[in-house]
Amino acid sequence: MNTSKAQIKQPNIILINCDDLGYGDLGCYGSTENETPVIDKLAEEGMRFTDFYMASPACSPSRGAMMTGCYPPRIGFGSFEGHWVLFPGQPVGLNPEEITIAKLLQQSGYATKLVGKWHCGDQKDFLPTKHGFDSYYGLPYSNDMGRQNEDDDYPPLPLLRDDEVIQQQPDQRSLTERYVEESVRFVRKNANQPFFLYLAHMHVHLPIYVPEHFLKESKNGRYGAAVACIDWATGVLLHELKQLGLEEDTLIIFTSDNGSRCQGEGGSNGKLRGTKGSTWEGGLRVPCIMRWPNKIPAGTTCTGITTAMDFYPTLAEIGGAEIPKDKVIDGVNILQVMNSGGTTESHRDTFFYYLTNNLEAIRYKNWKLHLRKNRREIKELYDLEADPGETQNIYEQHPLVVKELLIKMDSCREDIGDDSRNIKGKNIRPSGRVENPETLTHFDSDHPYIIAMYDLKDRG
């Protein structure tokens, strides 16, 4: 146990993770289409990160990385039997041998709860209650992995409480409100002890179902209504913290699991190139806001390279937990960066861009080198400080920079592998696997399922 636990009061921690919310989807990140007054105020009262990355441009790998502090290939989460993400009934998931940040905080005396999307495996050995969460309420995977129309092959979408299915095909229009109610109950119940709440929204993943009043007020269609719903939910939690006198004792982190799909659906990655599912900046660079009164200076900005993997060692220190010494962790502690208002440089100057188990690019300081895109070899170098939109390829002009970055990529391949080069990493761990997997639900033609709004066939 870290000795700082006895000396410093453990703060509450609320991690809000959105689904497919893009870099340009919030007012405080430049959006003029979406109304986000609560989240914008959160940024004014805390710190906004400009160069914050998820470890993958797809949801299962990015979430597994955030929970463990590791690049997805290190924990067997680069791909899943040929899929980019986990699907219902797959035999693989987050290995129970992995020690998640929830488990570390639980062992350090925190009450822990996950509300919303998990997507790290739907078999009982992989569910949140096996990974450090005292309780769970939500959808175990994406909200499009249910029966959206009569000829779907998917089993009915399950709503879980802990490891029990309590409803099939829940009405998604009311699901965010139910998530907020569950979160508020947890906060009230644990107001007198440190707690870790992980609220993982289904918005703005397709299909988008929102309450009618958000839709009526939106100037950006269903997408804008879903963003407004997230903003409303954030406001409810902030109000509850204030009512309970917990504002100053609570660190709030707001982020997204990967970039927006965009493609005319209402989302935006701002000035960044690319979308979810790509290793252009728009696929992995996402909004991140932190507020912690009297610890994080208000109205500050961090421009250094930071990642969701960094939550692991940072929250461990904040919560008085000790990181396992027998596992390699890729996250770096950014507490000093937070406390300094971004004036202290991050210990991270390098970030590797993986798509499945393929190493496609590297960022070192302001330089980004692409070597692979859409299954083909490329040679592209960008100065992200001068050209964040990755529009001017300057590969030929900087041979020494390219040489330095190639050496770093070779070291990464040796460490955690690169399937595109047939290299197996020396420091990788397997995902979990079960025999005879089953889906959590099974379609019954006589069951009166709700097919939501109820004919959207969008999938994300």
From TrEMBL:
Segments traversing the membrane: none
CDD domains linked to this entry: GALNS_like
Task: List, in alphabetical order, the Gene Ontology terms for molecular function in this entry.
Answer: arylsulfatase activity; metal ion binding
Keyword annotations of the record: Calcium, Hydrolase, Metal-binding
Q: Which residues form the Sulfatase N-terminal domain?
A: 11-320
Query: Which family is it part of?
Result: Belongs to the sulfatase family.
| Protein name, per record | Sulfatase
Organism, scientific name: Rubellicoccus peritrichatus
